[in-house]
Amino acid sequence: MPPGATVDSLRAEVLRHLSFTIAKDPGHASLHDWRMALSYAIRDHIVTPWYASTRRTWDEDRKRVYYLSMEYLIGRVLEDAAINLGLRDMAREVIEGLGVDFNALVEDEPDAALGNGGLGRLAACFMESMATLGCPAYGYGLRYEHGLFRQRFEGGRQVETPEDWLVTTNPWEFDRPESAYTVGFKGHVESRDGRDVWVPGETVTASAHDTPVVGWQGRWANTLRLWSAKPTTLFDLERFNRGDYAAATEPEQLARTICRVLYPDDTTYAGKELRLKQEFFLTSAALQDILRRYCYTHKDLGRLPERVAIQMNDTHPAIAGPELIRLLTDKHGVDFDAAMDVARKVLGFTNHTLLPEALERWSTYLFGNVLPRHMQIIERIDSWHRRTYPRPHFVGIVKHHEVRMGELAFIMSHKVNGVSALHSKLVKSSLFPELSALHPDRVVNQTNGVTPRRWLNLCNRPLAGLITETIGDGWQADLDRLHELEPHVEEAGFRDAFAAAKRANKVALTGWIKDRTGVVVSPDALFDVQVKRIHEYKRQLMNVLQTIAHWHAIRQDPQADWVPRVKIFGGKSAPGYFVAKEIIHLINDTARVINADPVVGDRLKVVYPANYNVSMAEKLIPAADLSEQISTAGKEASGTGNMKFMMNGAPTIGTLDGANVEIREQVGAENFFLFGMTTEQVAERRKDPDHARHAIEASQPLQDVLQMLAEGRFSPDHPDRYHGVVDRVWHHDYFLVASDFAAYHAAQAEVDAAYRDPARWWRMAAFNTARSGFFSSDRTIRGYMQEIWSTESAL
Ligand code: 26M
Question: What positions belong to coiled-coil segments (predicted)?
Fold first, then answer.
């Protein structure tokens, strides 16, 4: 808690901001006005540690970490900032005392949804952990006018509408128009005095907006610097006077387009010019800012690696390699070989996916047109690398008229990391086998983590309270201390309290589900949750097929002793991903039929609230009994939702994929519902061209489900609606839904058996929380600091 902060002082600050910043009197203030007033009052308390941290970093000439990411999936800021400052309970008291509903005020804040899913949320968790650990750091990103689209369902189908988080004032950002850089595109390269210089055909100005990120207990704060694009020249008067009115506003149009919208696809790379411009815009502005800050106190650019570490969040900012070479050689006169040496010591690259369709490759035609100087530099890097490390079948950066961003990022980095033990092994052996052989120490692992401040302490107050009561305070910044819960897990009293905390969250969620979807669910049921982007490899289809099989089984024998279940789905599909959209439609059609079936009643309900986002995750995850992590082995790089469920005491039903492997190691095999093929078995299975048919023929429940779908049981108005789905399971089942179905169905029966025995169940659930310490992003960031960035905490 900030020194001297009291309920009275905070109330006075809120009222002062209401009067003098918002210019409203308490009698006429709206919920929005109160939210703004409280946000400014809380913000004032961040500024002091923020100043102090920035000062210290300058005074002590600290090495800084620069995290480059096209995505930051932050969610709401107010309550998170307040709880980290120790002001949340005081804020609630002040606000309730003023006659305003605190929960409603918190929920009035729009989510900052500047990301698609896991990659963007990881960047947000990392920012919070770097602040908590006192690692001097800047996050660089884009200030999208529209974040990830909002999802609605119309007749069960996904409909996208634009997201509008900046329509109301964002109280957390500070405009820094004095921090501005010119970013060029297109044009040509000229030779001047034997040196190549780029003459861009278009330019825009990058202008900074800073958001402070405050760590636990306000001991340190870093900056998230988001760029917006402004026209370099407001208006081309000469063209206008010639009557070329449209062309006269071209600079304005370009600037307005660049930061207009986040690309909503996290699965397929499309090769769009605007996306390349966005990536270069972020990267160039960030690097110019970094070099300017360095040159403010240092002369020798050769010593840049002693003071600067730059991390590339996937290949999206991989143009950082060539851009850094360009700035060092063309602008600062460093020679190429020295520039290569510096760049490779400074840069690190995190890979987040093995899916071939997600890997960025730009046609040399498009690339050379948008970034002609960078195309030259890339050719030079490529031939430098081929010369330095000769190999007959070497896979280079430019091949088949494409620039491969993965290879570029690999070659330009001193460390390349995967995001779970299994994934890192696969990055080495199957994604970059030749490069890894040439550079055997380059690929390392940094298993992902999540911030326990947001994902346990903030979103699950009942459980956080129980933990503090049991082991005392301080676990929030030292999550391994959760192991101290283990002896208590054997006490019936503790397990009852653990179950009571879960129940409180479930009761709250029950009301929310009723409001959002109209479906009435019982808090006595097992809440079975799968929330994540909709993708074939994540196999939501397998979940819904199993749900149908379970429904069918209940109908066969309604009086049997069924464990009541609520199947909860959440997630968005990329707008152009037809197969994923069909799965969404199927989940909604299935829910409609099952929820209206009087034979099953409370034994089975299916809910799919629209527009899953960070704020929805904060409600669903604390109320979950079971965590669905059922991807085809070898496809999910890590997963981070899996870690959030574990922390909140929900055992996993899952495959040996991504970080599930490490979750199972930590929690113990007896506290994890394992099923399905391993990565090796998956590869083996695909060799049988009839794998799906063989699996379907061996499983009566699966046959029945596919039969019902083919007959139109869930789409009586359009009986042939799911013929495509059925056909794909039979004949094009690349992700092996059929082959893993029976094992999954059996594992679900195991779950029921465990849930019927409360002592067993709550033991499992509590062990999940007690053994989740490893998955704190503090542990992850410590790993990056030691093995990649060579930085130390300033605290
Ligand atoms: C690429 C090109 C053009 C437009 C968009 C993209 C793009 C955007 C996001 C590609 C991939 C994107 O995200 C991938 C992602 O979220 N990967 C997830 O990363 C998590 C954090 O490491 C892992 O936990 C998940 O397993 C992994 O799927």
Answer: none
Q: At how many degrees (to 10) do helices 461-471 and 492-517 cross?
A: 170
Q: List the residue whose alpha carbon is closest to atom 12 of ligand 1.
A: 266
Q: Is the CB of 636 under 6 A from ligand 1?
A: yes
pTM over 0.95? The answer is yes
> Looking at ligand 1, which atom is closest to the CA of residue 121?
21
Q: Is the CB of 263 under 6 A from ligand 1?
A: yes
Does the Cβ of 637 fall within 6 Å of ligand 1?
yes
Q: Whose CA is nearest to atom 2 of ligand 1?
A: 269
Pair (402, 489) in one structural domain:
no
Chain segment 341-390, per-residue pLDDT in tens? 999 999 999 999 999 998 999 999 999 999 999 999 999 999 999 999 88
Average pLDDT, the chain: 97
Mean pLDDT over residues 449-478, rounded? 98
Strands 361-363 and 402-404: antiparallel
The CA 657 to ligand 1 mean position distance, Å, reads 16
CB 448 less than 6 A from any atom of ligand 1: yes
Question: Whose alpha carbon is nearest atom 11 of ligand 1?
Answer: 266
ipTM: 0.99
Asked if 529 contacts 620 with a C-beta cutoff of 8 angstroms, the reply is yes
Average pLDDT over residues 784-794: 98
> What is the band of 763 on the pLDDT scale with cuts at 50, 70, 90?
very high
Tell me, what's the pLDDT at 188?
A: 97
Q: Are residues 47 and 136 in the same domain?
A: no
Q: In this structure, are 496 and 617 located in the same domain?
A: yes
What are residue 311's DSSP bridge partners?
A: 67, 348
Quick one: average pLDDT of 200-206?
Answer: 96
What's phi and psi for 415, nearest 5 deg? -140, 140
Cα separation of 232 and 247, whole Å?
15
Nearest to 549 by CA among 675, 702, 696: 702
* Residue where a domain stops, chosen among 417, 448, 479: 448
Shared-domain flag, residues 195 and 316: yes
Please, which residues bridge with residue 211 across strands?
224
Q: Are 142 and 282 in contact (CB under 8 A)?
A: yes
Does residue 193 sit in helix, strand or coil? coil
Does residue 638 have its Cβ closer than 6 Å to ligand 1?
Answer: yes
Q: What percent of the chain has pLDDT over 90?
A: 94
Ligand 1 lined by 658 (C-beta under 6 Å): yes
Q: Is the CB of 215 under 6 A from ligand 1?
A: no
Ligand 1 atom 1, closest CA = 269
The whole-angstrom separation of Cα 625 and Cα 754 is 12
Whether residues 166 and 31 fall in one domain:
no
Please state the rounded mean pLDDT for residues 131-158. Answer: 98
Q: Which residues contact 335 (CB under 8 A, 6 or more apart)?
A: 329
pLDDT tens digits, one per residue of 656-715: 999 999 999 999 999 999 999 999 999 999 999 999 999 999 999 999 999 999 999 999
Mean pLDDT, rounded, for 494-521? 98
**Region 217-244: what's the mean pLDDT?**
87
Same domain, 188 and 41: no
Q: Which residue has a Cα nearest atom 10 of ligand 1? A: 266
Mutate to test the pocket of ligand 1, among 67, 126, 275, 314 (most ligand atoms within 8 A of CB): 314
The phi, psi pair for 12, rounded to 5°, reads -60, -40
CA of 736 from ligand 1 middle (Å) equals 22
Residue range(s) defining the domain that contains residue 717: 452-775
For ligand 1, whether the C-beta of 118 sits within 6 Å is yes
Q: Is the beta carbon of 742 within 6 A of some atom in ligand 1?
A: no
Give the C-alpha separation, 698 to 704, whole Å. 12
Together in a domain, 441 and 501: no
Between the CA of 266 and the centroid of ligand 1 the distance, in Å, is 5
* pLDDT over 70 percentage in the chain: 99
* Active site positions, annotated: 352, 532-533, 538, 640, 644
**236 pLDDT higher than 80:** no
Q: In this structure, which residue's CA is closest to atom 9 in ligand 1?
A: 266
Q: What is the average pLDDT across 483-488?
A: 98
